[in-house]
Amino acid sequence: MSDDTLLSVQGLVKHFPLKRGVIMSKTVGHVRAVDDVSFEIRRGETLALVGESGCGKSTTGRLILRLMPPSGGEIRFQGKDIARLDDDAMRRMRRHLQIIFQDPYASLNPRMTVGDIITEPMKVHEIGGESERAERVSELLEVVGLLPEHARRYPHQFSGGQRQRIGIARALAVNPDLIVCDEPVSALDVSIQAQVVNLLQDLQQRLGLSYLFIAHDLAVVKHISDRVAVMYLGKLVEIADKESLYRRPLHPYTQALLSAIPRPDPGAERQRIVLHGDVPSAMKPPTGCRFHTRCAYAQERCRQEEPDLRDAAPGHRVACHVFETLPTPADTAAPRARHDINFRRRLAAFEAAAERLKPV
Predict the structure, then answer these.
(1) Rounded Cα distance, 43 and 332, in Å
(2) Where does a domain end: 231, 265, 294?
């Protein structure tokens, strides 16, 4: 672990017991939601975690915050293994670890004013007196683009984008070092997405924050991330800096994700990788590589032997036995060129909106 590493996750595991019986007392199996996941986040860095719904992204984020106990592995934050901290020590540690939830409607208490919502974490961590907290609330509201008088209003009096700004202000209230952004823009329209992403980037630069950014939208991920980790059925299958991953994805699953980006022209010819079959059950994942049941390049070794996440290039790791022999963008220039053009259009539209909505 290098000196600038803020968070180091090693062998993280979360298995949920599946119980049956009259009083739900008999354990008949386990859902392997997160299985041997390892990564690092450096100070001031944004690591994006992407994958299909149900792959374990949000569970990973909640495990890092100890909102649920891990079944195994290490979560080292600033050198301390927080997976083994007691409740009192973990409560003190949470001042440095915060979360922005996906749903801006469900994540705010409708019975509390905005001022009370932002003040609550300061009270829990005994930060400042009453007047200092009130001043801090006004400062935070201005930082996220709202007005100090909004502190007296209730969440139902705001739009979705404004509510998400309130959620960001609440996360900032205790001066955290790492924020888990659990799909913070997926419930918002594109123009509001751009505003919120701009805000997160501006706050990162001003406050030196680190983000674990969980998302589906690969255009948003390309815009905000420094590195990208791809997750499938509880495991990381690829991790790299964003330029390397978008330019030359190595894992068949990553290639399929990038090829599935929506096109701006519905009538345009589509060249994409179609994955056949459904995602296997997390209760009984396939032997060997978990992706082999949907992979067009699977070999007998893939069905028997689970691949390790190994170095394919400097800073680029992939869990695939046969990635060296897969077609690369250069081998499939014609179809991928059309995909790249459409992806660049999608990304350019998002970045144009983001630039247009930046504060002067």
Answers:
(1) 38
(2) 231
What is the extent of the structural domain holding 55? 5-21+30-231
Contacts with 66 (C-beta within 8 Å, 6 or more apart), sequence order = 75, 82, 83, 85, 90, 93, 94
* 166 and 255 fall within a common domain: no
The pTM for the full model equals 0.86
pLDDT of 59 higher than 90 = yes
CA quadruple 171, 174, 176, 180: dihedral, nearest 10: -20
Question: 200 and 267 share a domain?
Answer: no
The residue with tokens 């495991």 is 235
Q: DSSP states of 60-120 as a string?
A: HHHHHTTSS--SEEEEEETTEEGGG--HHHHHHHTTSEEEE-S-TTTSS-TTS-HHHHHHH
Q: Domain boundary at 231, 259, 281, which?
A: 231
75-84 confidence digits (pLDDT tens):
999 999 998 8
